[in-house]
Structures are given as structure tokens and as C-alpha cells.
Design a protein that fits this description.
alpha/beta, 7-stranded parallel beta sheet, 5-stranded parallel beta sheet, 19 strands, 51% helix, 14% strand, globular
Amino acid sequence: MHIITSNEYLARRDYKEVGKILEYMGVSVGLIYQNMDIEERKREYLKDVTYGTNMEFGFDYLRDNTATNKGTVVQREFYYAIVDEADSILLDEAQTPMIISQKKEKIDEIEYIKARDFVQELKGIRIIKEEPKNKKQLLENEKYDYVVDKTYKTVTLTQKGVDKAEKEYGIENYFTSKNLNIMNYINQALLAKEIFKKDIDYIIKDEKILIVDTYTGRVMKGKRYTKGLHEAIEAKENIKIKNSSELKASITIQNYFKMYKKLSGMTGTAKTSEKEFKEVYGLNVVEVPTNKKSQRIDKKDKIYGTIDEKYKGMLEEIKQSQEKGQPVLIGTTSIENTVKISNLLEKEHIKHNVLNAKNDEEEAEIVENAGNLNEVTIATNMAGRGTNIILGTKTNKNEVLKSGGLKVIGTEKHEAKRIDEQLRGRSARQGEKGESIFYLSLEDEIMQIYGNTKKAKRESRNRQLLEYEKAQKRAENRNYTFRKYLLKYDEILNYQRNIIYENRKKILDNEFENVIENLINEFVKYLINENQDIVVNLKSQIESIENIKFSLENQKEISKKIYDRYKGKKKTIGKEEFEKQEKTRILEVIDKNWIEHLENMEYIKDTVQIRAYGGYKPLEEYAKQGKNQFDELIEKIKINSISQLLFNINIL
């Protein structure tokens, strides 16, 4: 059984506290965490129950399926998973796949800098949502070099921008396959310029770009953006591009967890997403009554016309709480907003602590003190931190309760109502007193992207709140649609992934000798029908050595001679050493071609989206082109496995 939670702190805590009970009952308990060596991981996976984070389990799965030595495989079969903070892991984190990458031999620093400088000179238009049938919008867009779609967080060159790119790079047709690299450098530079923001999506620490988890506010250690985006951000921030990476393996959260024969989970905020749990994972949502009746007072949201007015009202709320000595937790959606609020509090001489990705090593101490008298704490995405705020750890708890308990102030709604509920849930635990209130404005990002601000400005306060709720609902629907879209694409790739991984496993288990004869037949058939220079040269070499001519009539005889050559090579080198070399060569062929295939599939996904404007159905196109690509991949692997094994060359 795997017990999976969202961060290492919680995994360690539960392993230590709950693990004692399990061990007392005769159940062995293990823990997976970062920076463990292979032998330690293998031992922990052999335990009856293993604690860890979804990222550790997922990355171990990917590493196992790219292993070149059976001794480095750490996981056993998937049986039962219990997921803590189930909506955070199974839904929110499911918007991006789990990825492992490998360093590229060549670092294209000059190309990233060139693309950065090129896009800096371009002028873009920011729109709420691109509508292909809106002719007025399309005509307006064409006045600019690129279009930023704020809803889908994409950046696309217009024809005007394409013309400039062709001139800058000296190319005739921007969209031909030979210009894929140029397209990618420019696309990533545009994303770095317009979509990925410092102190929101990433921070800079020790001259490194560190990714911030959108849902937990924590730094994602060791993780890099793929497809050249990380390098594009380094170029944007004038940080030396230390290494360049390429996609090695990936899987969506959904397809990873669907491999478990049994799956269950727990969270305080799943009811609003029960449809998605059922559709994607086949899981029912059951509400369990609270242990003690909640005494939390959830005050009506307050909404203002501008962000400045909102913050002014929020400051008055904090001052009123300070007069009573009531502890206050202020929740924000980004590091940038945390800094703004911190500066406002400093101007008002209000003492406070700040918890975000820049100082998450101080998390335990800040959280420990957040429930004391007169304490004010600002936290980025407190909802994802999974830590109880205990009232009165260093002051009198009864006095804290008399002051009203912990007050939670939300400064903006998240794109999922569940996360707002989790923020509220930091207060009034286990029947204690507490309260919550949200301070909102018509200038909040969620309203700018998903709301009708012009209409809302004309409405009463109550109607404005209703418009805000509608904007949040649109955001939830968009993210749900995006996750479904991501899963549908990955299901096509998942079919291919399973075939490749299953064959890799057979090779690691030395179960490939019986297929060599079949591979040789395929190899000979290919040589007979192809006339590339490299193939012609190889045929001449074989004809000379074996004293035979390639023809359809001689196919069986040639296959037998090459198979005899294979057996002879094994005998000369020695069975054990030959099988070791054989395994290495074939795995190298599979991995090299699979990595190229993943890049091709990414390119297909990008191009079918563009073709949607021409009336094509993107998913159908992706499936069709993906099948053709996969058929070519299998042929390449078959032919190159034998040509590498016997002749040390790749002919495909």
C-alpha cells in the first residue's frame, strides 16, 4: 500500500506518528523521500505500507521505466493507494504531467539570447480569450506581432509577427518542419516574456530559476521547465544558461494513479468536484460529518472597485482585530501580492510574519506562532501547507478564544472554490472559535480574465459579488476542461508508452532472445526493399561476407545466415558478456528513438491546435498522426536494434 501526500513534511510526520500504530499491529512501514539512494528506496518499497509524495512515487515509476539495469528498478507492482489531500493531488496537480528530463549535450545559449532579443522588439495584444470566428477580433489582432490569450495562457505570432521572424532568421517559410527549432526558441521566449512571471511562477535564488508550485506556494526542488522554457526564462532574467534539457519520460497524474488496482483518498473539500472524481477515476465522493460542530463565522465577502480600495478596507479589518489581540492569517495567491501586503503593513507599523516560497525553510516556526495573541501572518497559498495552526502555543489559549479565535482574511479568490474553502479551514479547527472573510476587487486577476468587469461596475455590491462568483465558476470549468483535454491526449500517448515500457521490461528481464529471430526477418525484409546509400553499402558488405545476393527469393536464406552470424557472435564473445552488450545496445536504441518520438508528439500536439482554425478536429488529427509516428518508431527500433547489434550502425 502506498500512502501518498502532497509534501515531504506531511509524509514524514504521518510516517512517524501513524506508522507507530501500524508497526505495533505487525505491519511494516516505509518512507520515500528526496535524495535517497537506490538500495534504500528498494528496501522502503518492500514494506507493507510506504509513505511518500506523489512526485516521489511518480518519478520513481518514470525512472524505473527508463532504467538500463534491472538492479536500479525500485518499485514493485501497483496495488492500493490512499491519497491525502486528494483534490490537490488528483485534480489541481493533474493540470501538468510528471516529467523527467535529461541534459542535452549541446547548450544553445546563443539561440535563446537571440530569440529573447527578437521578441523584446515585438508588440503584442493581450485578450481575454481568442475566438477564431470573431472577425473583428481577428482584424484587430493582425495589427500586432503576437496575441496573448490570458484565459488559456498562450502566446501566438500573428502573420505580421511571422513575417518579422522570417526576415530576422532569413527563412522562407516559418512553418516548415526544418524550422521547428527556430519556432520553439521564439515560442518559449514569448511565453517567458508574457506568461511566466517572477515571484508568481518562479523565484530567483543563488543565480538559479526555482519553480514555485502554484497550489502549495512551495519551491519545487530539482524541477525544470521543459521544451526550452527554463532556458528562455534564464535568458530573460540574464542568468547564465547552465544546461539545456530534453524530455526523457512523462506521464499525467491521472494515468499514473489509474494504474493502481485500488484507489481512495481523503480531503476536506471534494464535494464540489465529485463529477470529475467519478468521470476520471471512477471514485465516489462520500461526505463524513465533522467530529465537532463548526463554530467558525464565515462573514460575507466584501468587494471594492479597485485593488487599492480593497487593501484599504482589509487594513481596517486587521486593525480592528489587533485591538482585540486576535491573531490574523492573511492568504494571498502569489509571492508578488504577499510582498505588496507586507509593504502596506510595514507602512502602518503592523508587525507581521511572511510565509512564501522565498522563506519556506522557516515554515514550521511561522505556522507554530500564527495562532498566538496579536500575531499577523501573511501566507502564499496557505491552503496547500497541510499544517494545523494551534491557538496559543506561546500565549494564553483562552485569551485567544476570547478575542474570537484565528481570523482568516482572503485577499483574492482562487481559480477553484475548493482552495478558498481550504484557506477558511485553517481557522476554527475541532470546534474552536474562529472567523473568515474575503476582501475582493473588480481589478482582481480572476475578474480581469474570467469576469465581465464593465457590467459588474454598473451593478450593486450584491450583484458584483454574484459576477465574481460567476468568474470563479468559469475558471473552474476552464481548468476542468483543460484537465480532460490533457488526459485525452495523454491516453493516446499512454497506449504507446505502455507498449514501449512493457518491451523495455522484457529486455531488462532477459526475455528477448526468442524475438531476435523475428527481428532479423524484419531487418532482412527492410534491406531488400530499401535503396538508401547506407542500406546499399550494408547489403554489399553482407553479400560479400556471406556470398549471397539480396532478393525476395533469398529472403529466408539471408535471414538464416544473419541469425547464424548472431549466434556465432554470442558464442565468440561469451553468452553472459554478449547478453550484457545486447541489452545495452537495444535499450539505447529504444530510448533514443522514444525520446525523439516524444518530441515529435509534442510538435504534433502544437500543430494540430493551429490546424483547428482550418476546421480540423485536433484530437482526431493527433491520434491519426500519432499512430503513423508510432508505427515508424516501432519499425526504427526493430531495424536499428539488429543493425546496431551486428553491424554497429543505425540505418534508420
